Amino acid sequence: METVLMLAQPEVDKFTVTPGVLGFLVVAAIGGVLYFLMRSMRTKLAHVREGGFDQAAADEPGQSPKE
Q: Reduced to 3 states, what is the DSSP secondary structure of residue 59?
């Protein structure tokens, strides 16, 4: 009954509106995706720092390896 009364009110009090479970799930999903992206980026940067960038450039046709 309270829900019907709240919906019948012409004005919505900004302090009673909350993001709820859906808002939490969206933020949690974004956090999870960012975690895996950062983990992947860390491994790729480690590969570049080890000299993997020079090896990848040498694998291209027409390039000679730098030694």
A: helix
CA distance 9 to 48: 60
42 close to 50: Cβ distance less than 8 angstroms: no
**pLDDT per residue of the chain (67 residues) written in tens, 0 to 9:** 666 666 666 676 777 777 889 999 999 999 999 999 999 999 999 888 887 655 555 566 665 555 4
Nearest alpha-carbon partner for 54 in 63, 62, 41, 44 = 63
According to DSSP, residue 53 is labeled H
